[in-house]
Amino acid sequence: MSTKIEVNAMGDACPLPVVKTLKALKQLDGEGVVVTSVDNETAVKNISKMAQEKGCTASVEKVADAEWHVIVATAGALPWPILSRTAPLSATPAPARASWSWPSTPIAWVAATMSWATSS
What we know:
120 residues
């Protein structure tokens, strides 16, 4: 069974969000997911880079103008939407973009597909 740990790093400057995420990864003791809430893009990039270096997968979900959830999953962990059955994928369509590119993660792909299918 995968475990989910939520880390609040809102207002923290680097390297504190990375340190908090690493500490949570150690607490997982195996497979699971760490969801770190941050308020700056530098923390998003640094946590994502750390996750890759540790052999984990990282995906990013932008929640508000200055809030991101960085989802770090260890090998063998259940996908984020399955683990968090209380959180829907997306109830609102994604905002229009000036240019389009392929989504970088399966979660982003599902969100993009859902927003496309529900838009008028």
